[in-house]
Amino acid sequence: MTKFMNVEQYQFIKKQAKKILNANTTSKDKNVINAIYALVQEEINEKLTFHDIEQQLLLQPIFNIQTKEQFELFASEIKQYVIPFKAPTDSEIKKLFPKDKKLKLPKTEAIDWSEISYLSWIDSGSNRKYVVYYDDGVLKGVRGVFSHTEKMGICSVCNQHSKVGMLMVSKNGTALGTYTKKGNYICENSESCNEALTDLNRFKEFVNNLR
């Protein structure tokens, strides 16, 4: 079977699987559990477009999840059908940030490309945070100064409650010598942000606002 889920959809399915696991471990009421099953099925049908019955059947074991081990096995088995984030080359990344002559590239060896919808890293020397992503197949990037706030808040990208910081991007203004600043709060940990990102529209709104 060919790959048919993007990373965003994969993270969404894992989130639904956690709902099933939580229902089976916290409730004994069959009516409550069945209601959650029905809601999960409805949300999956809205999120994914299945091209054949085999793809639908592939996700049916989600309703048998009753233990953490079963959840991890399910997530592992469906992962092979995920279209991974296309790993950019060092040269491609450098072209996105031509003004950064001493750009420190991220260490990509340990990245699981089937788990991320965007690539991000922080240059601790300059305190800049870089975000690399695809927009209709075209590689793009934004970067700005990242302020560590040491506080919990709602991430503008993934909408989860997490440790956030302010990403502030400066742009040239309309008048010569002027500039404007735009920013918002984003997860400090891009790995957990990617895992919680189940709606790419939120991410697109975030980066479009910064550009």
UniProtKB/TrEMBL annotation:
UniProt xrefs under Pfam families: EF-G-binding_N (PF07299), FBP_C (PF16571)
Domain (Elongation factor G-binding protein C-terminal treble-clef zinc-finger) ranges: 101-191
InterPro entries (UniProt xref): EF-G-binding_C, EF-G-binding_N, EF-G_N_sf
Residues in Elongation factor G-binding protein N-terminal domain copies: 4-86
Protein name, as recorded: Fibronectin-binding protein
